[in-house]
Amino acid sequence: MAARRARRLLGSLCIALLFAQPAPTGAAARSGSRSLLTESLVRTFTPFYFLVEPLDVLSVRGASVIMNCSAQCETPPRIEWKKDGSFLNLVSDDRRQLLPDGSLLINSVVHSKHNKPDEGYYQCVATVDSLGTIVSRTAKLTVAGLPRFTSQPEPTSVYRGGSAVLGCEVTAELAPLLRWERERQALPPEPRLLQLPGGALLLTNASDTDAGLYRCALDTGGAPKYSDEAELKVLPAAEEPQRLVLLKPPSSLSRLPGQSALFPCVAAGVPPPLIRWTRNDEELPTDGSGRFQLLPGGVLEIRDVVEADAGTFTCIAESGNDTLEAQAELTVQVPPTFLKRPANIYAHESMDIVFECEVTGKPTPTVKWVKNGDVVIPSDYFKIVKEHNLQVLGLVKSDEGFYQCIAENDVGNAQAGAQLIILDLDVAIPTLPPTSLTSATNDHLAPATAGPLPSAPRDVVATLVSTRFIRLTWRPPASDPQGDNLTYSIFYTKEGINRERVENTSRPGETQVMIQNLMPETVYVFRVVAQNRHGPGESSAPLKVATQPEVQLPGPAPNIRAFSSSPTTVTVTWETPLSGNGDIQNYKLYYMEKGQHTEQDVEVAGLAHTVTGLKKFTEYSFRVVAYNKHGPGVSTHDVVVRTLSDVPSAPPRNLTLEARNSKSILLQWQPPPAGTHSGQITGYKIRYRKASRKSDVTESVAGTQLSQLIEGLERGTEYSFRVAAMTINGTGPATDWVSAETFESDLDESRVPEVPSSLHVRPLVTSIVVSWTPPENQDVVVRGYAIGYGIGSPHAQTIKVDYKQRYYTIENLDPSSHYVITLKAFNNVGEGIPLYESAVTRPHSDTSEVDLFVINAPYTPVPDPSPMMPPVGVQASILSHDTIRITWADNSLPKNQKITDARFYTVRWKTNIPANTKYKTANATTLSYLVTGLKPNTLYEFSVMVTKGRRSSTWSMTAHGTTFELVPTSPPKDVTVVSKEGKPRTIIVNWQPPSEANGKITGYIIYYSTDVNAEIHDWVIEPVVGNRLTHQIQELTLDTPYFFKIQARNSKGMGPMSEAVQFRTPKAESSDKMPNDQASGSAGKGSRPLDLGPDYKPPLGGSNSPHGSPTSPLDSNMLLVIIVSVGVITIVIVVIVAVFCTRRTTSHQKKKRAACKSVNGSHKYKGNSKDVKPPDLWIHHERLELKPIDKSPDPNPIMTDTPIPRNSQDITPVDNSMDSNIHQRRNSYRGHESEDSMSTLAGRRGMRPKMMMPFDSQPPQQSVRNTPSTDTMPAASAVPSAELAEPEGPFLPAEEEPQGPPTAHVRPSHPLKSFAVPAVPPAGGPFDPALPSTPLLTQQAPGHPLHAVKTASIGTLGRTRPPMPVVVPSAPEVQETTRMLEDSESSYEPDELTKEMAHLEGLMKDLNAITTA
Fold first, then answer.
1. Does residue 1090 sit in helix, strand or coil?
2. Which of 426-435, 504-513, 670-679, 1320-1329 has the lowest mean pLDDT?
3. Which of 1358 and 730 is assigned the larger pLDDT?
4. CB atoms within 10 A of CB 387
5. Contact between residue 775 and residue 832 where contact means Cβ atoms under 8 Å apart
6. Which DSSP helix (H) or strand (E) runs through 1246?
7. Dihedral sign (CA 1355, 1357, 1363, 1364)
């Protein structure tokens, strides 16, 4: 009973306590219930990562490649691929496809020189739409280039038991694809055979079975690419000691950890050398027990390379008393690896977070951050801190996703990622604050419990506003007036920006905060939220506050001055700034060398500072910035000052001496190196002395020129010279003493040198080594030697070398060929007597020239690093339009200039057009080099440098050479045709020179025709001189389409024709056309009588229209009268001349008559004077043109607006060989002509015109009367009319003062052209300096003036006659002409005159036959 009452009382008490508990407020109840619900609703991090990432791949063209990629996530991700940063469209790609696991398959890799669509960097991108995106590491796909060998195997000899290296170098990506064959069979795997990293083959312990032909092969898919074959000869073991040489020294390597490294050190010698290795001067154990192993042939192998293996490896070879050393560096590069990976982060909006990432690698990796596959660009809210960490300020909901830290260096890249989840503000972060949250945001992260939340803070105000910070204060919320347990979060942002940042109070109950790192003159929006143990409460109303403008910084320091107090110091002074609140704390002085981009600074407390350690005589700029407590002020303007000058700090360079005669020596040098002048060079001081008397020194001061002739020296005495540069401060260091000896006696240069005393040749397979000794007579100056060579003739090529040189190697010759070689010494007077030698180059199979070159190569010990003397006497010998040979001498060699060590020379060259052309270089092991592939007619400059081991000289003084001209390789451009105003039958052709003239343009030829498809020899031709770019063509047919082409010519020949340009002449003539244009006096197609000047008389024959209208009967009758009159006058004049010649008895008169006979009729090759025959005049009715002659007042007449033939055969281009032969004949012949041997019609005022047909005389072999053949002569006999325009001999009696040569113009003419007779020009009339077209087509020899002539046509009377052969013999040789003059003592006999008269009667019969026809 008592127990039951006790239980009832306890239950009543519990119920009373339950109802006595106060009900929670609405906000607290909601918060508590929401907190309980969301405890289980916090999102968890989702595993999302790559199972497989793509790796670097080396492929070959045409192969298939798979780039592996696989990603893991709860939701299967979508895989995409990027190439070089851009997404690939794999849907429409027929060669690239996505495999089911996400890998990328590339079928048939495409790769060419200009199209490389598959090579590049690939990246796999995995995306889960509701989660985010991650990217893999980047993988490089390298496609091996075209199989190409950078060096070929060369024939090699090796002693039995020795080692040999066969070179076969390829690029790094092709090296894994290279293999070797012997006798075209794959080499079996053998310890004695080792393929080195670059591709070379090492053969050790050689035996007789190793001899044979070796080649290397590249397997890049498809047929292998083979190198040249090289023969390896195995020689019997050497009994005599052989010098130690290094066949293959080690070369520096770069390796990754875990890879292997091979350092070759192949040495040869007798006794066999021993090889040992050291690393960083410590002996390496190479017994094979560790990772270091010595392979046969002295090769060091390092297995499983680690970072600690990096260092300097030295190979030491010892053989008897000989020791050789060689060094190489091993660099170990380490791909990026992560020391600390980013961690997943929970956060709320407006918080600041930091993703941490620590990486290591060698070289030091660079780090970039990626968010959901996109690169994060640093900004005000995304910042890179502590080099690698990413800080995100003022989080917003869109910042959620996956962040990846990507580290990369030269040897690889890696990525690591983390996920960011932003929770709602009423959801507590489930874990303790991670280290990646900033201290400003981790005070309110404790888990919230159920209970009432605070209301909004009251009275938020900005109590302090500055330029870069603001202080806020407020009162606690009304719900908790004490507020001792409240913390506060201050959210702020720039006005207009949605991203908020948050700052938390440092301790509970604090009601103020300082917000720093703000921008001046910027409006910020602030709000404050209180938080108790249940969570954050309501936000205060937004408060807008603008920061102050930044006006409290110091202004510029006034009166800044700078002056140089010494060659290396500058003192700068200034005054206190006039504006700026607050005391100046310090100044910063900034200075920079003029022309540099890096500024240096120094802190200064006062108003002056002296900067030391500057460069001498160098301009510097200075500026000053004042600092106060607010920071740096405004900078002053720059002041520029130059440090004081000093004496030069280095001597002049490249001092060379050259003995000019017995009493003078020429010094040449170059200025001190740039940066060592220390001032303006004002001159050079030269000190010299006799080599035997070192105390007696003479000084001479030269100007700023770089050479000086020292005169007044003693004969045959050796002098030493040194040169020092001077500034206004004094004299700098001098060069080393350099010696030269004056000549024993002055050399003679009034005559050419004598023949060299000896000439020796040594033929090889593709070269001949020529050596010689100077002429025995040493009293004549020798400036150099000219070497001529060629197959069968020594005149094909000519090389000129310096007078110091005693041997030369002629290269690029054909094997098994007979060469003739000539050697001549030359000076400024000319070339001396040649010395001849012949040699037959060896066949290809002869390899005896290599002998034991590799084995017996001389050993050069490691030299000291002092610089070498540069080469001297650099000369450029022009060989062709694209080839120049560079020769030089080396003063560091013996007098015979023989190279016995391992030095080599570097030749560099460039042209100054365009100005920014870069130098090209090439190496040579002899004292000459053949530079090929140059541009025609271009000036190049050349210089040479010598290298021996680790020592190199400076560049030599430059030599210049201009390549020969070449025929134009492009046609004239911008060809236009326009009609001349007022003259519709006249057109004007304009053009521009060819873009590739390759020389000076000497002339142009205009072709035109009414049929564009006609053969080019059927087009009409107009020549123009080279300085004209416009030309008029007259008397064209109206309303007719014409086609025009232009061709340019230089001294080497004709260039290509331009494209045809069409032009139609107008339909009607203008009303102001002159009457002569309508007359019928034009002689043949295209003649222009109005433009020929007063000396021209229109032809009297049939009046053809410009395009061949038939002649009238009146014209035929007039022509008949003219022909008969000309015949009678010719007979009378010839009789008078013959009778007058027979009466001349003096020896002088006889010689002149003999010259007249030799050219005008008696061509005597052999026999005596009785063999002389009278001339036979050959007249071809369609190929002859008589020309009345007048003296041109202009030595270079302009060849435009000239009545020249416009037919395809008017002008026949000839090759250069024919040009030169004809000029040679003319020169030899013209040398025996007297001034009065030139005849002209213009000199006979008042006389009747004569028909004169001058040719080179030949014994008559055919007659027009007897041989009316239609066969034409061979092309060789068709001498161009330009050759006939030259005077070939006298044609008039000596009493008549001749002015110029009458000329027969041999050319085909229009079949309807008139038969015209030249008219006598009026006395004293001006002469039109117009020339016939043909001189442009043959290269005129220099010094031979062109004779201006005018032409009248000889044609048929209206019907076409078959062509008849015209023989134009060449001029007699010099000796024959001399004999003619000597034999001319005898005069004509009466029977000879009778024969001449009979011949002239036969000529008249020919003329009568023409008229009757």
1. helix
2. 1320-1329
3. 730
4. 11
5. yes
6. none
7. negative
pLDDT (0 to 100) of residue 897: 84
- φ/ψ of 187, rounded to 5, equals -70, 130
Strand partners of residue 488: 530
Secondary structure, 3-state, 635-664? CCCCEEEECCCCCCCCCCEEEEEEECCCCC
Contact 254, 292 (CB under 8 A): no
Position 271 scores a pLDDT of: 83
> 759-794: per-residue pLDDT in tens?
999 999 999 999 999 998 877 888 899 999 998 888
Give dist(CA 1351, CA 1184) in Å, integer: 10
* Number of neighbours of residue 791 by Cβ within 10 angstroms: 13
Q: Is the dihedral of CA 520, 526, 530, 531 positive or negative?
A: negative
Residue 678 CA to residue 725 CA, distance in Å, equals 10
Whether residue 1226 is predicted with pLDDT greater than 60 in this model: the reply is no
List, as one string, the DSSP characters of 60-96. Answer: -TT--EEE--EEE-SSPPEEEEEETTEE---SS-SSE
Helix (H, G, I), strand (E, B) or coil at 1151: helix
Residue 941 CA to its chain's centroid (Å): 14
Residue 1389 has what pLDDT?
Answer: 53
| Token pair in block for residue 150 | 């950078």
User: For residues 1162 and 1173, what is the distance between their CA atoms, to the nearest angstrom?
Assistant: 5
Strands of 807-810's sheet, edge to edge?
A: 756-763, 768-775, 807-810
Contact 1050, 1001 (CB under 8 A): yes
What is the pairing mode between strands 230-235 and 156-159?
parallel
For residue 510, CA distances in Å to 488, 507, 527 come to 8, 6, 16
Banded pLDDT at 602 (limits 50, 70, 90): very high
Distances (CA, A) of 214 to 179, 210, 227, 299: 11, 10, 9, 21
Among the listed ranges 281-290, 302-311, 563-572, 856-865, which one has the minimum average pLDDT value?
856-865
Helix (H, G, I), strand (E, B) or coil at 781: coil
In which residue are the tokens 């391992």 written?
Answer: 902
Q: CA–CA distance from 565 to each of 380, 403, 590, 608, 611 (Å)?
A: 47, 58, 18, 13, 10
| 168 Cβ contact partners less than 8 Å away, ≥ 6 residues apart | 149, 151, 152, 153, 178, 180, 199, 200, 201, 216, 227
Confidence (pLDDT) at 1381: 40
Paired strand residues for 515: 470
- Cβ atoms 1096, 1350 nearer than 8 A: yes
Taking the CA atoms of 1253, 1259, 1265 and 1269 in sequence, report the sign of the dihedral they define. negative
Kindly report the length of the chain: 1413
Task: For residue 402, give the nearest of 86, 125, 122 by alpha carbon.
Answer: 125
The token pair at 579 is 């504006």
Cβ atoms of 753 and 823 closer than 8 Å: no
- Interatomic CA distance for residues 1203 and 1188, integer angstroms: 13
Residue 1375 burial (C-beta neighbours within 10 Å; 0-12, 13-18, 19+): exposed
Distance CA 761, CA 773 (A): 12
Q: Quickly tell me which residue has 């407390």 as its tokens.
A: 605
pLDDT score at 1146: 45
**In b/e form, how buried is each residue of 173-185, taking b as 16+ CB within 10 angstroms?**
ebbebbebbbeee
- pLDDT tens for each residue of 257-294: 988 888 888 888 888 888 888 988 888 887 766 788 88
Tell me what the mean pLDDT of segment 853-865 comes to. 39
Residues 6+ positions from 1362 with CB-CB distance below 8 Å: 1268, 1269, 1270
| pLDDT value of position 228 | 87
On whether the CB atoms of residues 277 and 354 are closer than 8 A, the answer is no
Confidence of residue 957 (pLDDT cuts 50, 70, 90): confident
pTM: 0.39
